[in-house]
Design goal:
The protein has 661 residues and is of the alpha+beta class. Among the domains are: 129 residues, Arc Repressor Mutant, subunit A, CATH 1.10.10.10; 136 residues, Rossmann fold, CATH 3.40.50.10610. The protein is built from 28 helices and 14 strands. Strands 9, 10, 11, 12, 13 and 14 form a 6-stranded mixed beta sheet that branches. The N and C termini lie far apart (77 Å).
């Protein structure tokens, strides 16, 4: 005999439906994002319309073990999110009324609907397009925990505590508020709990922490908290932590958590708030199971700003412990505590990071120097200051000894002050690769950095560059894809994958990847350059010229210091297109400009290759070797140098760089 289907209970009010079984809130059939705690509060209030639910009842239901450091703040936050979801107002409530110092009351009329009533018009489905009324079979008393059976038979004052013990948490305490309908709710709760699988966490994304300080100038501080938490969690070898570059795109987003989790390919989501008042800091962090938006853990921390790094360590350690002890995920290895730093230096350091995010390289360097002056022992300031010099060196904006020499110096100082800092080893690896041509040493430093933080997407993509330079294309592709997995939304890592395809001479793939990036970021000059190089190799020379013209125009407008790099690309494209006069005109401009500012001899050499003047090309390549020009390390595969490969002088060139054998 077929068992009866269990009824699904839905509370309908206004344009809203709250499904108690699935934990979903919908408005006119559309899913509304609502955190788990706020949904539980809604359930408690809407189940008793017109009645007062006290703050104490809410505390017992949602925070029975006192897990929050500040109950008032946590409750106010949850109520605020509920009102936001409902479009409600505390001053003129349509749904949730506040009774000062007592509690809350649901003031709208509520209709309770079961699965016997059609809900298809309100959009309730099971995710496959079918109505969400599954036949789950009948639960009877024999399928309940013994304590729960006792509750159904004998409802005394003791029963609310027995329910808490039997089925646990907020839903159990909710049942204590209303004896009527207890059996139906209890059976539904047991079934719902049995249907929820254990939340296994193998990947996590930290959403940008919300700045509650009321001062937009404090955004750098909340962003810094996000970055430090990403870095700290990234040190857990068994956990994949999504890059900050990707998560920062979701700042102030209104997307539902399950949608964010899908886009970021993350099992768990961390969200939180930061509030700073003078020297006092309050941080609230929430851990959610991404696919279902189920609340897993939350805590509020309060410290003086002097202890901010210890606070960041505490938050990361608490989340790691939840993953290890409660969620059946990987076994994290907690690392040593973060290095101490003076509060003044740390604040300047965070501002430097903020300017680096805005690609204001000179201002970031100025602020890093200020931070170092205030606290000469703070290793991250040295390691992070290597980043602006990396960009200046990679795009040949300043001479290699000024760029890579500085990267090397900063990396050495960072490692000297903290040997466990991944970014310090990453900076050293870049200098050894691009400037020292110590390729074995560079690989050791890359591997050490990734051992310390396997989730550092930037270091992975830089290691992919190293493997590309060595001609180890399969390994490079693998590292590039790992980097993109860690930074699925960021364009920088997509750039890397695109450049890898170009290096592997997979030009069609590279073109498609470049077009995808440019759809999202049409001002990405590096991607325009790669697309131009792809078109050259495909014989689409006028398209190549067009892409380099765009890159030059954008660079002249936004970052003139990088203009020579892209002008050299345009001259090369002109020469490949047979437009010799145009190519020579741009070349003359570069040579004249080199009298006043830096122009890479490697870039000049490549133009002469396209013009067919091999002697001039080798003369400029010899100058490039003498000053260790950046792009020489990619000579092993660079297709722009193909016309020189049969010349004996080219093998001599590779030996001088260390790229043979």
């Amino acid at each position: 005999m077929e068992e009866a289907a269990h009824p699904s209970r839905v509370l309908h009010f206004g344009a809203f439906d709250a499904n108690l079984q699935s934990g979903e809130l919908r408005k006119n059939g559309l899913r509304i994002r609502l955190p788990d705690q706020s949904f539980q509060i809604l359930t408690m209030l809407a189940s008793r319309p017109g009645e007062v639910v006290t703050r104490e009842q809410l505390r017992l239901a949602l925070w029975p073990n006192g897990t929050f450091g500040d109950f008032d703040h946590s409750l106010n936050t949850a109520i605020g999110r509920l009102r936001d979801a409902l479009g409600d107002s505390a001053d003129s409530p349509r749904f949730v009324e506040t009774l000062a110092r007592r509690g809350y009351r649901f003031v709208a009329s509520v209709e309770t609907i079961t699965s016997g009533t059609s809900l298809s018009g309100r959009g309730w489905t099971n995710g496959t397009g079918e109505s969400a009324h599954p036949d789950e079979g009948t639960l009877n008393e024999s399928s309940l925990p013994p304590a729960a059976v006792g509750v159904v038979r004998k409802p005394t004052r003791r029963w609310q505590w027995i329910v808490v013990a039997a089925i646990g948490g907020p839903l159990a305490a909710l049942f204590a508020l209303n004896v009527g309908g207890l059996r139906e709710l209890l059976l539904e709760a047991v079934r719902a709990r049995r249907a929820v699988p254990a939340a296994k966490i193998e990947s996590i994304a930290v959403l940008p922490f919300e700045n509650l300080s009321g001062d937009p100038a404090q955004e750098y501080f909340s962003d810094g908290m996000t970055e430090e938490l990403v870095t700290n969690l990234g040190k857990i070898s068994a956990l994949r932590v999504i890059s900050r570059t990707s998560v920062m795109r979701y700042k102030q987003t209104k997307k539902p958590i399950p949608e964010l989790a899908r886009e970021l390919n993350a099992d768990a989501i961390v969200e939180g708030t930061v509030q700073r008042s003078g020297n006092h800091v309050r941080v609230t962090a929430n851990l959610l199971y991404g696919p279902t938006d189920r609340h897993l853990w939350a805590e509020t921390y309060e410290r003086d700003f002097d202890d901010i790094l210890a606070l960041e360590d505490d938050v990361a350690s608490a989340i790691a412990k939840q993953i290890e002890n409660r969620l059946g995920g990987p076994q994290p290895r907690l690392t040593a505590k973060t290095q101490a730093v003076s509060p003044e230096a740390y604040e300047i350091y965070l501002k430097a990071n903020s300017y680096m995010d805005q690609f204001d390289l000179q201002k970031s360097i100025d602020y890093y120097n200020q931070a170092i002056k205030l606290d000469p022992n703070y290793a991250p300031a040295y390691a992070h200051m290597a980043s602006p010099y990396f960009f200046l060196g990679f795009f040949s904006a300043i001479p290699p000894n000024q760029a890579w020499g500085k990267v090397k110096q900063l990396g050495m100082l960072a490692v000297e002050k903290d040997d466990r800092l991944p970014e310090g080893h990453g900076a050293l690896a870049l200098a050894k690769m691009h400037y020292d041509w110590d390729f074995a040493g560079a690989e050791r430093e890359f591997k050490r950095a990734l051992e310390l933080n396997p989730s550092d997407a930037d270091i992975r993509h830089e290691y992919a560059h190293y493997l590309m330079a060595m001609g180890r294309m399969a390994e490079s592709a693998s590292e590039s894809k790992l980097a993109v997995d860690l930074d699925p939304i960021g364009d920088v890592l997509a750039d890397c994958l695109c450049w890898h395809s170009f290096a592997a001479r997979q030009y069609d793939d590279s073109i498609q990847l470049a077009r995808n990036v440019l759809t999202r970021a049409p001002d990405d000059t590096w991607e325009l350059a790669i697309l131009g190089w792809d078109y050259e190799q495909k014989g689409l020379h006028e398209q190549a010229v067009a892409e380099f013209k765009k890159a030059v125009e954008l660079t002249n407008k936004n970052s003139p210091i990088f203009s020579p790099f892209y002008l050299a690309g345009l001259a090369h494209a002109y020469a490949m297109a047979g437009r010799r006069v145009d190519a020579e005109q741009v070349l003359k401009g570069l040579l004249d400009g080199a009298k006043h500012s830096y122009v890479s001899p490697f870039d000049i050499a490549v133009i002469y290759v396209a013009l067919g003047d091999k002697d001039a090309a080798f003369a400029w390549l010899n100058k490039a070797v003498a000053e260790r020009s950046t792009f020489l390390v990619y000579s092993k595969w660079d297709p722009r140098l193909d016309p020189l490969r049969s010349d004996p002088r080219f093998q001599v060139l590779l030996r001088r760089i260390g790229l043979t054998g």
